[in-house]
Every structure is written in C-alpha cells, then in structure tokens.
Amino acid sequence: MRKNFYMLAMVLIFGFGFYFYYNFVYVQQPRRIRNLKAEIEELNEKLISAQILSRKLDQVAKLIERNLALSLKDSLAEDASMPFMNYITGILDEMEIKLIKLNPGRKINMRDYMKSPYELNIECAYEDLGDFINKLEKSERLITVEGFEIDNAIRKIRDRKPGDKANTHRIVINISTLTLIKRR
Fold first, then answer.
1. pLDDT tens for residues 121-138?
2. Residue among 177, 178, 181, 120 nearest 149 (CA)
3. Which of 24, 76, 107, 162 could covalently link to 69 via disulfide, CB atoms 3.0 to 4.6 Å apart?
C-alpha cells in the first residue's frame, strides 16, 4: 500500500512540475513570431509554385518555337511534311509495328494555325497502339489524334497466315499536326 502511495505522490509531483515548467518557466513563442513563421511558410510554398511554373513555361516556349512557321512557305507548313512522315515511320520501325499505308491529307488553313491531317493504316496489338500514341504525345511537334478505328473481327482469325501474330489488329489512325503561323 505504501508503495502505491509513494508512486501516486511521485506522479503528482512530476505532473505539477511539468505543468509549472510549461506554464511559467518555458516561455512560449510570442503570437507575432508564430504568425510570421506561418506567413514565411506560405510565401515559400508560393515561391516553389512559381519556380515550377517557370520551368513549365520554358517548356511551352520551346514547344511553340518548334512548331512556329514564319510563313505559309516554311517547311513546317508544307502539305505532306517529309521530316514528319520520316519521324512517324521511324517510330513505327522502332516499335516493330507494321505500316500498311501512310496517307497525308490536304492541309487546312485556319486563322492562326495550319492543320495537316494524316491517315495511318497499321497492324499491331493493343499495347503497341497505346505505346505508339504515348510516343506521339511526347513528340516535339503538336500532334492531335483525331480518332482511330480498330478492326478486331473474329472472322479474320481463320484468314490469318501462319506467320501472323494472333493478337494483332488492323488499325486506322487519323492524326493531325498543328503548325502555328506567325502573322506580320
């Protein structure tokens, strides 16, 4: 019983000691300093956000620079841009996707930009299609995927040749490159 009484007394002494120390000896930071710390943290967050936006804007500026034609006679503004078609065929060869047909369309002149459509007929698996569209998205050119059609008819399974893969499908992809036109 005595041990319990001594233990209770020690707990109460330590409790009052901590309470006294925290309220009277330990000086809390004044309210103004706490407010200034919170304000500094908020300003640091804004600074970090501004730095991130600055980097993003640099990337946007580079993207615009790479897609800006000085006039309609610029090589970027041609109907069927050979460098772009070589880029597409290079990606397809790299990914081992079978290109059946690459058909450039007629360019469409808008007020501030020009749209050059292309129709690609390819044969690949679904995963390869996703990887191909992902690579198009990472291109330095402004490319839009207008749409795609997948022919996955079961009737074609019996028509397959012995060397063909079972999970490949014929896909028609309509893409367009956008070229910004600098007006004088």
1. 999 888 999 999 999 888
2. 120
3. 76
Beta bridge partner(s), residue 98: 123
CA proximity to 79, closest of 124, 133, 116, 111: 116
Q: Tell me if 146 sits within 8 A of 174, measured CB to CB.
A: yes
**What one-character DSSP code corresponds to residue 162?**
T
Residue with tokens 């007020």: 111
C-alpha 85/C-alpha 102 separation (Å) is 8
Q: Where are the alpha helices (DSSP H) in the chain?
A: 2-20, 31-66, 82-94, 126-137
Rounded to whole angstroms, the Cα distance separating 88 from 82 reads 10
Helix, strand or coil, per DSSP, at residue 118: strand
What is d(CA 37, CA 31) in angstroms, rounded to the nearest whole number? 10
Q: How far apart are CA 121 and CA 89, in angstroms?
A: 12
C-beta atoms surrounding 104 within 10 Å: 17
Non-local CB neighbours of 147 within 8 Å, separated by 6+ positions? 173, 174
Q: Please give the structure tokens belonging to residue 39.
A: 């304000």
> Regarding beta strands 169-181 and 113-124, do their DSSP bridges make them parallel or antiparallel, or are they unpaired?
antiparallel
